[in-house]
Amino acid sequence: MRAVRMTSPGVLEQVEVPTPTAGAGEVLLAVGAVGLCHSDLHVLDAPPGLFPTPITLGHETAGTVEAVGAGVTGWTPGDRAAVYGIVGCGTCRGCLSGAENQCRRMPPGGIGLSRDGGLAEYVNVPARNLLRVGDMDLTQAAPLTDAGLTPYHAVELARPALRPGTFCVVIGIGGLGHMAVQILTATTAVRIIAVDTSVAALDLATRMGAHHVVQAGPEAVERIREIVGPAPDGADVVIDCVGVDATLTTARTVVSTGGRLLLVGLGGGTLPVRPVADAPPTLPLETSVEIPFWGTRAELQEVIALGRAGLINADVQTFPLERTPEAYDLLRRGEVHGRAVVVP
Ligand SMILES: [Zn+2]
Ligand SMILES: [Zn+2]
């Protein structure tokens, strides 16, 4: 079968590899769609040794069951499913509590991260990582597993603060951000302020339900302040889907006293914490900072339910498998609107 693999650190190639067979407890899935994620770029850019090679990338997968391994019940060929990407140890406190995204033994691991992922014609996954998607379009189902699940988990963490009529700022209207806006629209009555450098991304945010859009730049904080009011008031919740120094500065400058700042994007920025009175504070008092990671299996089931109900729809740009490197280049240059999805 054809697969797009990181053959050595930083090197992406389309290669022919043997089609895997489902082992005990595993299911062989014919890949219908796989979303491309900024995290894949971090994997490609990572220092040697952090991720195994060779490895088939792709951690945002949906497909059709091709074959089941020994001991697998409940799945038969032809069933359609989305893949929960995290493979936790199953025995630590995080996994035992049902939060495999808090696995304490996991290196940044999972399907397409520590074992072969979905950028291939077939992928082998543990049966317990599959969730049913019914007759949903697989190019819609695939992005739900990360671009949908990650902001959904962030919204779940912040939900007590997302009271009707309060303000939520979403920074970065890319793959995750455009889903965050829809999840907020579908499950809350907050006032959504979308922030991005790109006018096209802001137009997308408006179509997805954002009440206000603000172009990122030197005047962004002032524009947001005109909407949320002066400090110590501010945005009750800020979800930063970028996570570079500039976006974190905007986030901490507009969050309200007692607000919630959720750092979702892995942009490598630094957030200084200095809540004192004798120097300019970097964060308002009583502010919570959280670093959500992906989400839980139960949350993915809820995200799929929102997708099947038509309440959230990924804005997708599709590519055949052989154009995967080009799609990653577009993603790297910030030229993908919504989610790039490969259809093997
Ligand atoms: Zn991802
Ligand atoms: Zn664990």
Automatic annotation (TrEMBL):
Q: Which cofactor does it need?
A: Zn(2+)
Q: What domain of life?
A: Bacteria
Q: Which GO terms describe its molecular function?
A: oxidoreductase activity; zinc ion binding
Keywords, A to Z?
Metal-binding, Oxidoreductase, Zinc
SUPFAM superfamilies, alphabetically?
Answer: GroES-like, NAD(P)-binding Rossmann-fold domains
Q: Which PROSITE patterns match?
A: ADH_ZINC
Indicate yes or no for the key word Oxidoreductase.
yes
One Pfam assignment:
ADH_N
Enoyl reductase (ER) domain ranges (all copies): 10-342
| Oxidoreductase found in the keyword field | yes
Q: Which InterPro entries match?
A: ADH-like_C (IPR013149), ADH-like_N (IPR013154), ADH_Zn_CS (IPR002328), ER (IPR020843), GroES-like_sf (IPR011032), NAD(P)-bd_dom_sf (IPR036291), Zn_alcohol_dh (IPR050129)
Q: Entry's SMART domains?
A: PKS_ER
- Give the similarity note: Belongs to the zinc-containing alcohol dehydrogenase family.
Could you tell me what this protein is called? Alcohol dehydrogenase, propanol-preferring
Q: Write down the species.
A: Micromonospora halophytica
